[in-house]
Design brief:
- It contains 28 helices and 26 strands.
- It is an alpha+beta fold and 764 residues long.
- It has a seven-stranded mixed β-sheet with strand order 14-26-25-24-15-22-23, with helices on both faces. Strands 6-5-7-13-8-11 form a six-stranded antiparallel β-sheet, with no helix packed on it. Strands 16-21-20-19-18-17 form a six-stranded antiparallel β-sheet, sandwiched between helices.
- The relative contact order is 0.10.
Amino acid sequence: MNSVTTTLSIGGMSCAACARRVEKIVGALDGVSSVSVNLASEKAAITYEPQRIRLPAIRGAIQEAGYQPLEPAKASTADEAWARKKKEIQTLKRKTCIALVFAVPLFYVAMVPMIPFARLPFADWLHAVMRDQPLRFALVQLALTLPVIAAGYRFYTAGFAALARRSPNMDSLIAIGTSAALAYSLYNTWRVADGHTASVHDLYYETAGVIFALILLGKTLEAVSKGRTGEAIRKLMGLAPKTAVIIRDAGGPGGGAETEIPIGEVEPGDILAVRPGAKIPVDGTVLEGYTAVDESMLTGESMPVDKKAGDAVYAATLNTTGAIRFRADKVGADTALAQIIRLVEDAQSGKAPIAALGDRVSAVFVPIVCGIALLAGIAWFAGTGGDLRFALTIFISVLVIACPCALGLATPTAIMVGTGKGAENGILIKSGRALETAHKIQTVILDKTGTITGGKPAVTDVLPAGGASADSLLQIAASAEQGSEHPLGRAIVAAARDKGLELTAADRFLSITGRGIEAVVNGQAVLAGNRQLMDERGVSLAALQADSDRLADEGKTPMYIAAGGCLAGIVAVADVVKASSKAAIESLRGMGIEVAMITGDNRKTADAIAKQVGIDGRPGSGRVLAEVLPRDKAGEVQKLQANNKTVAMVGDGINDAPALAQADVGIAIGSGTDVAMESADIVLMRSDLTDVSAAIRLSRRTLRTIRQNLFWAFGYNVLGIPVAAGVLYLFGGPLMNPMLAAAAMSLSSVSVLANALRLKRFTV
């Protein structure tokens, strides 16, 4: 059966235990094959079979679990989603302000009388009130606590609801801990009212109030930080213009009237106009005009790209200088920008394998913490001879300090920032698995044509014979080749035009299949072709034989030019190595990575290219794989994998797709085919090989950040829970106050997010 994958935004999740519960509930539904919940982005990627289960049923299951399933996440709803997130942050900020406004004086009122000889404002008055009017003292604290509780009531509603569903989460820990403090305080307030004035020393109002305030503050900082992790994709979503200028009746008198319409009304085939300084609204092909387009948002390349009739333009890129008209080819979700957004969203919704450890721990974390808190409280109650206040301090501290949030945020936040940073620099990483695997790459196999080389033949050498100049030889050859459709002929014509040479129209043109061309230029018969053509026409090549052999050894194709029956010279054409290829390969080798080249070309050409870029082509090295048929490329990748190598394949063509899919990490050059890009795990939009090493460095940096986050999250709980349970106190050390535990818990989540955000400083 056919499966479909959708992404749902989910509200109401507070920690890793919530994410785990959504995965468990949805994953158990008949017809759902996989589900991955990302706590940082608050989204779930769900793969299901529509024939067996419908989306409303999935949404219903999520709702029954106590969470809010929102509309499927699409680029078109990005503005609404971000507006909803900003509203949530503003609400948190408002509640935090309310909590702090009342928690600060609550803390002051409760704690100052506990400090002997305090020389603080109102200290004497507070001492007197506590001593002479204990009930008023207790009721003032209760009055200050109630607004704080009101601001954080969601911890109770969500926490106890999760307990009722037997799936306790972080909210449950807070709800249990503060409820215990409040219940104990209310009991002692009643005792004070009943005449037991000594009970005024056993109030915990400030503990509950300050815990709420600190956790709300931490949640606010966490929400702001989580919002920043998705900045890259929001920037991409905000780049597309809202309107387009369409040409009505473009073929009519005056070229048609211009009308501005919403971007959603543009259809393929429409003729659009773009003025200087405006953004290209959709993907298309230039019909009229000449301009330079800033494509940095798409490729990361800072230099504008010249565009003329026949060239492709892309949505959201900036038209800088000239006015153009173009035909809309791809609109809406089919544009390159929309595809990039989808790739990045998919990567951010998925999970890296390293996240499995955190998932397993978070699945049992909260019940274990509840058990530890209860056992520690009972043990201290018995060990202190029935000191309920002391036991309650331990119980609350253990519950509050435990933080499954840090565990749940450790991996997805780093992946979100890493993939977003890659997208900003034209490196599209399509999954968390690819991001993680890339850091382990030991061998990179580079396809030659279109990857190491430009993929288009270009003139490399012009060698005249008989004392003629190089320009005159190129001029004659290009004039003769003007009517040719062969790539080598077009390369010669392009080289002449680039040099500004004036070409003469040929009077007669004849293409000789497999040999070359014959033409008449300025009344003179001109031949341009291979050795076989020259031999057939009796043209001697002896004068340039040594040069011809040298060019062939260098992997270049010598085109012999004859005029009037005599050899005029050689124009050598080759698929030229990209300017950045050698530096990119040196960078990879400097990172300790083996580099190999694979090509269908003959051994001589392959060795020549390998020599130019610094790949070891010595016999037996196995670094130059020549004369490899397209169907055999994946097999060469398998051979390396069989030797326990983690292999990356870099290519751009349809014939590279099987090898890209076979490799541990497939890397596609962005200028390549859609098939290659679909088969790859990473797409380099700039078509620059130096981005291969940049992608691997980004992977290594991201994995280092994830490990740091996991170490902090695990280490925090491994150390914090025993301290809160009173282990240090047993040996004469300090006892952790519940308020300090709340501050530490909030700090742990914020620190994990802050560490992930350091990835934003990564540079290519």
